[in-house]
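In this supplementary section we document a worked example of the pipeline. Step one takes a protein sequence of length 690 as its only input; no multiple sequence alignment statistics are reported here. Step two produces a three-dimensional model, which step three serialises into structure tokens for compact storage. The input and output of this example are shown verbatim.
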Amino acid sequence: MELELMPRCRWTVAVLVVVFAAACASDRGAPRQERFTGDFDAIRERGRIRFLAPSISTTGIPRGRTPLQAERRLAGFFAELRGLEPEWVWVEEYSDLIPALQDGRGDVIVANYTATPERRERIEFSAPFVRVREVIVSNINSAPIATSADLENRTISVRRSSAFWSTVDSLAREFPSINLIPAPETSDTEELLYRVSQGDLDVTVADDLMVQVVRSYLPKLRIDMELGAERDIAWGVRPDNTSLRDTLDAFMAQLRPEDDRPDRYVADLPGIREHKVLRVLTRNNPTSYFVWRGHILGFEHDLMANFAKSQGLKVEFVVAPTRVALFTWLLDGLGDVVAAGITIADTTERLLSYTRSYNRVVEMIVTDSADTALTELADLAGRTIAVRFSSVHWATAARLQQQGIDVKVVQVPEDMETEGILHGVATGEYDLAIADSHILDMELTWRDDIRGAFAVTDTVDHGWITRPGDTELHDALNAYLDSVVRGEFYNITKRKYFGNPRSSRSYVTDRTTRTGVLSPYDDLIRSYSARYDFDWILITAQMYEESKFNPTARSFAGAVGLMQLMPQTAKGFGFDSLEVPAVSIHAGTQYLRHVWNLLDDVPDDTERMWFALASYNAGLGHINDARRLAEQEGLDPNVWFGNVAEIAPLLQRRSIHRQFQYGYCRCNEPVAYVRKIRNRHRAYAEVESR
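The serialised model returned by step three reads:
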């Protein structure tokens, strides 16, 4: 029996992970037929890496967004991170993959490929991309299959070259009445699942992860029974390409929790309740989840912690290394829900299940604050936008190009969050960026060197994400959002993080210029600065930066008073009632002296003060990490401006901060903090000298 092939588009837009800027046909240029078998060093010299994948007919059937799509995106990310140009080499049939690899027509097999013992005899495999189980799949209108015996007189269709063939062949030997039909080698698993859902095929075998995703748009599929133990899905390389394999293994290690946590499981809400913990996949950034002066904060964090509490669950936040890892980790059972400010995709393009909207934003073009000429779309001609390839902003930039606007788009590293890109705009590293409006608003609460030029989208919605089959969790999240969005808790939480965008500041107030009085608290500042041997004008500049001389100021994180100390920190030094100016000034200067004393390895007193101020803002541990990073990069770890201040913002990148003790640091903030205090101190000193 020969199966009729249904045509389809092989290369589709991977929603959630990325929106491709190019059309399907752009990836299907004629492959180069060269023969090359070099290892990774030779690949780097060539500047490109060839990924082998099966080429299948290219029009028609409804398609979802399968794990294979995400796997191919990861291959592109691997190439990007290694500075290589990805090249896709398409073979006619699945059975051609290993011969093509051995013949030197490609470097890596990326094809949702199971690392079976038979294949391991011919090629090497990387560490697994994901682990799966084989399952029997049939149509919901057919008789259910509870045991192997129920397969008697049923017809099973799989490719002979697939990992499933040996499994079903063994079943057919045990039960001779099973009718085993080889599927065409040009037909992939998703094609066969579609055929089963339409009733054209009786039974097939597939990976459980693939079926779980495909069922979200082919609801007539039924998983009947599991077959055997877990198997590895991995990338194939030639046996003598050991350096390439090791490099791939290192990349795969970044996609999983560093401790290879044993609690990998897929569970809906009842199973989550059995574990008593809700695992929330998120990103370490100032809108989702971050640590600020010892406190765990974030808009997503607060909403999710409240949801978990409403369900009687503890909450565990699992920080993924990249945006794409949020989705692969969810599918792999390393988390239960994604909460990271993700834009809800169009209904027809969904890979996973979105909740209802809980936040609405617009996408903004962001430029340097001095760039006043950029006011409308036409002004983008000749400019360059910096975007992560996995971001929805990439698709926005692509649409601008499709509208005929002569704007260039450059990729930034995948582990760089939006605020890192905005910092690059401020410093001149990047020309323009696209940012969601709430992120831009938060950045503008502490910096004035960038501005939002104009919106490039209508309002877009953010939602949380679950696996397609986790319907009870999905429904519970929607019910929670129905009850809290626009309510008191939600409004307070949103205002806490996004409700106070800062207006521009002048460095010297009119009152200072007129009277020479720097603040209402000059006498107190002089007194406590003298006690702790500090320049009182510098402390005044710091106070303005902290509170703008407002004694009742309270930050979104709970810092209080003129010097913006956390109450817990102040209590550790014996202080309470931080709203009282004398108490706050005394506590702040004493704490600054404490930090100063811990920096006794900085020989120059002026430099030591800059480091002390940076530590006051971000924490001594993070600043010492930045000093160690500066030393590694050949900079002076004892000089702030032009040295440590230049390198510190790199601690936002996972590839960098994971090497240091205190991890992620939003270190562009202390850099700006110290710079502004220095500049204000200079202005104040000039006024005081008159």
